[in-house]
Amino acid sequence: MVSIRQKLVSANQAAKVTNGKNNAKKYIVVHETDNTSAGADADAHARLQLNGNSRDASWHWQVDDHEAIQSFEHYWECWGAGTYQGNAQGIQVEICVNSDGDFKKAVENAASLIAKILKDENIAIQNVVQHHYFSGKNCPRNIRAGQITWTNFLQMITSMETPKPEKPPTESMKYRIVTGTYSTRNAALSVLDIMQKRFGWVAYIEQEGTKYRVKTGTFTGLTAAKSADNKIKTAKLAQVTYIIEA
Ligand SMILES: [Zn+2]
């Protein structure tokens, strides 16, 4: 997840460079800053907006290779898309192209930010569009030129949106519990003894350098493994335990 912060333009200033507060928040409009100067990163663009941009332009977010900065709440109708419709319905995201930045990383960060906005504002991936979509401007320039294709960019967003697939069914898998280390063999032996005699488990001692761990036989299913792990903790047999796949 890209790191995010706000550097919000004052309401007074915002009123001067937007069409007001009724953004329909239907689209995310993707831009590039076209400013390749060294140092023209997200912070520089956020400062520009904060200090009162002299151009008739405004945008909600700027993203570079290390962070995303928000300048306007999404309800403002920023002047970014070049058309009334695009401004009234779009959340404008500028990707920095400063020559001392990593453009590919900036694009990844933009994808990560957009995945978050889609979720927060309940916008569909189909409504992530280029500035070009509204006004025909060649923006975002490098993406349109295929440096990273638009299709890839959308895939990046989607893959960040979707939670990682779950591990295979855990109830049929086998697990062991391994304790942290004991400094003497005797300490490990007394734990082993309790596991074997009181709990009725299979268990072993494993030497690791000059230290010792106790390792159980296998438990089937994560539920069983967790309950065994709890038993070890309740009996205070180990300060640290690990459930590992057998
Ligand atoms: Zn643009």
Strand fraction: 15-25%
Report the strand count: 11
The geometry reads as: elongated
Kindly, what is the distance between the CA atoms of the first and last residues, rounded to a whole number of angstroms? 32 Å
What count of structural domains? 2
In helices, the fraction of residues equals 25-40%
Counting copies of identical and different chains, the oligomeric state is single chain
Q: Under CATH, the topology of the largest domain is which?
A: Lysozyme-like
Question: Any ligands, ions or cofactors bound here, and which?
Answer: zinc ion
CATH homology-level superfamily of the largest domain: Peptidoglycan recognition protein-like
Identify the strand order in the major beta sheet: 1-4-3-5-2-6
Question: Biggest sheet, open or closed, and with what strands and sense?
Answer: 6 strands, mixed
In CATH, the architecture of the largest domain is 3-Layer(aba) Sandwich
Rounded mean pLDDT score: 93
Structural class label? alpha/beta
CATH class descriptor name of the largest domain? Alpha Beta
Return residue spans where pLDDT drops below 50 for at least 5 consecutive residues: none
| Rounded radius of gyration (Å) | 27 Å
Q: How many alpha or pi helices?
A: 9
Taken in chain order, the helices and strands follow as EHEHEEHEHEHHHEHEEEHE
